[in-house]
Specification:
The protein has 165 residues and is mostly helical. 62% of the residues lie in helices and 0% in strands.
């Protein structure tokens, strides 16, 4: 990088004052300052874009690794569930156990049983009026604390508290 010290900056300022002149020097200094600011913003934008692209690449790699992990877990769950289903079928096979003279109830007693049927209970009304608004704070507390419980417009409030004639 360029090594610029205070003495070199003073020398550059003196030469600029002689060459440009004292009338035009402030305008030139402002222009140079704005150009340097734009250049710094451009460099910072480029750095931010590079950082974003690097983070995006890292996120893509992480996404791919997570997808492969999910696929592996999915495969193991699928194989475990198929093994479980086989074991379940083997354990719940009534006919083979009872035909061979096993202990228990004959399989013919379960012939009318449907494992997919479910009994749904009848609907019971909870006995609440959902249109009635229920507040968490009791009315007696609101009355004691002076909290308004009813909404009134400004004109209605003025009319309510207007002195009687």
């Amino acid at each position: 990088m360029i090594d610029i010290g205070i003495s070199k900056l003073a020398l550059i300022g003196a030469v600029a004052l002689i060459v440009i002149g004292p009338e035009k020097l402030p305008r030139v200094a402002r222009t140079v300052g704005t150009l340097l600011g734009k250049a710094q913003r451009y460099v910072s934008d480029v750095k931010a874009e590079v950082n974003r692209s690097m983070e995006l690449d890292e996120l893509k790699k992480m996404k791919e690794s997570m997808e492969t992990a999910v696929q592996d877990v999915e495969k193991t769950v699928h194989t475990a569930s198929s093994d479980f289903e086989k074991d379940w079928r083997a354990a719940t096979d009534f006919e083979s156990d009872y035909d061979s003279g096993g202990v228990g109830t004959p399989a013919s007693d379960y012939s009318g049983f449907d494992s997919h049927s479910t009994v749904t209970p009848a609907y019971k009304n909870p006995g609440k009026n959902f249109r009635l608004k229920r507040g968490a704070v009791p009315r007696w507390y609101k009355a004691r604390a002076g909290v308004r419980t009813h909404v009134q417009s400004g004109a209605a409030r003025v009319a309510r508290f207007r002195p009687k004639r």
